[in-house]
Amino acid sequence: MASQSARSTADVVDLSSLRDAAATLDAEELQVRLRGLRTQVLALGTLLPSDRPIVYLDYPLHLNVGDLCLQLAAEQLFADLGLRVLGRASMFNGRAWLERALDPSVVLVLHAGGNLGDLWPGHQDFREAVVAAFPHNRIVVLPQSLHFSDEQSFRDCMQRWARHRDLHLVLRDRHSHGRVAEYLGDRAYLMPDLAHCLYERPPLMTAAGRTGQGRLRLARQDLEALVAPDHTVVAGAYFDWAQIYTSGDRRAYALIRRLHRLDDRLPVSLPIYGAWRRFAQRAVARGAAHLSQFAEVDSDRLHGMLISLLVHRRVRWRESRTGKTGAYVETWLAGLPGLTAADTGTAA
Question: Does 243 lie in the same domain as 126?
């Protein structure tokens, strides 16, 4: 009897070890899939060969950490592909580039994100100006989500862009890609978000190694919010990117923005991009570090979700007004370990 009892005890499985093993398998699957998405983004090298110089236009000049993450990801992509960057400009200091005669070998690379459409007209107007100004140069629009509230505006835009024989538009979800492909055919491409280029790279790499506790509710508070969060319910219950910035950061940002506008009026370019890139690096590092303090992030921002995944946090995602988060999850992240859909919208 004693020996039988001993065997029975030995056969009992330690549930904690099973949970640890399951967590390890999930972590390994997450890592494999995120590395795979990064590899897919590098396929942009077919459009951006290393023997053709580029000009990077419409980089973000605002305080949205998600867009700044895309700026750093674009620079990482250029480095990974061995590209020579002749110049860079935002929509605030890009007018001079529109007036230049560029060699046909130069490729115009337009910034990635979720502002392709009529929701953010400043960026769309600048893209339209670039397309009109360079009919004989290759133009590559980095991975975007599409959102036009006016269908006729969408059709007009696509018809204009279809007339440019070397314009290539990269979309980051199947829905956007399907709509654009009706006009651009094989010059519409489906690829993951550019942020995946930063997986296991600075400035996200450090944050990924931290242990987090509790849950963070990241709720956007701009015109893309599906429902505005109610701050009167629980003070400090919601976090958004604006909260990572100090008064000193805002003064520095105001100065850099003024210099960009001045740069657009001068006959020579001011050396301002380096300062802005360093600002972006600090902002993204700080944003990722804040997210990594938590074990789970509940977010209606697409890049709140993606940055959290890239630093190995569990994520509950919520939809935004444009539907881009759900479209992205459906296209690339279905069944990803640690990613679940929240039950309600922005204000929950």
Answer: no
312: left (phi over 0), alpha (psi -120 to 50) or beta: left
Give the pair of three-digit tokens for residue 220: 């956007």
State whether 184 and 209 are in the same domain.
no
Give the helix/strand (H/E) hosting 117: strand 113-117
Tens digits of per-residue pLDDT, 306-320?
Answer: 999 999 999 999 998
Q: Are residues 75 and 156 in the same domain?
A: yes
Distance (Å, whole) CA 196 – CA 192: 7
Amino acid, single-letter form, for residue 121: P
Q: What is the pLDDT of residues 163-185, one digit of tens each?
A: 999 999 999 999 999 999 999 99
Kindly write down the DSSP assignment for every residue of 197-246, as one continuous string.
Answer: GGTTSTTHHHHHTS---SEEEE---STT-SS---TTTSTT--B-GGGG--
Task: Give which of 179, 169, 216, 174 is closest to 324, Cα–Cα.
Answer: 174
Helical (H) or strand (E) element with 110: strand 107-110
